[in-house]
């Protein structure tokens, strides 16, 4: 709940909002959170956006913060005969360069978190009386993003500070599909209003066909930096000792980030340039949104642009969580 912007904080003042804080990993606390509201009505729609999404956690941490948490929520929703239960899952279910993956693709996730999401999806389908719909997400961006696209943004800003070219693993063709958080929210709401989505799985992804090259072009525009690539052959050599490679990359960025924040009088920020090893693999996040469009949903933010990323950065600047000097 920390680091909410003004708009997010104001939403809690809405008389329609009843806020309850609980540890959903604890079954007793979860039951308390699902007690009927002050109006006495049971829950009709449940959107489970809660999960442990920090990278590089142990399997046990993900079992509790993903699987157990979701099963607790699903069980309570089913007890109350909730009309719908939406589970946010991962789009990192397989890697395909040529063909966007549909929802019925072969499941071969490459991150520990995505593997746990696969298990969660399977076990949720076994919960009696649960009216389930599963949502799979690519890289989500927009106000409030800390761990999806923002680490890459922070790193690009660091290279402006260093005044040197930024060099990335692989090449510009690496597919990294995106979606704006507004479309995640509005698509889920649209899906909840129709029985057609009951029991189904949907990818929510924009039309950008975002690649590492497209992101690099945006970062070059925002920070006036030069970005190049190591290429496939040289990048493959890092597989021999990926942990050391990732450690060197993070060491190069963490010190300068601390310097920039100190220079701009930023005492504490949730934003970090730290990149987990799993996110630097040569794996494509390439999802099809055809099923969502066939349902009838029309994207409100179909394409990723530099202005949209700048909006997120400036929102953090207003909170003194991102160095303003990098935007001058």
Structure overview:
It is globular and about 60 Å long. It is of the alpha/beta class and 328 residues long. The longest helix has 22 residues, at 242-263. The chain has eleven helices and eight strands. It starts with 5 loop residues before the first helix and ends in a 10-residue tail after the last helix. Helix content is 40%, strand content 10%.
Biggest pleated sheet: 4 strands, parallel
Shape: globular
Mean pLDDT: 95
> Beta-sheet strand percentage?
5-15%
Instruction: For the largest sheet, list the strands in their spatial order.
Output: 1-2-3-7
Radius of gyration, in Å, reads 20 Å
Order of helices and strands: HHEHEHEEHEEHEHEHHHH
The CA-CA distance between the termini, in Å, is 30 Å
How would you classify the quaternary structure? Answer: single chain
Please bin the fraction of helical residues.
40-55%
What structural category arises from helix and sheet content? alpha/beta
Q: Give the tally of β-strands.
A: 8
Low-confidence stretches: none
* Helix count, DSSP H or I runs of 4 or more residues: 11
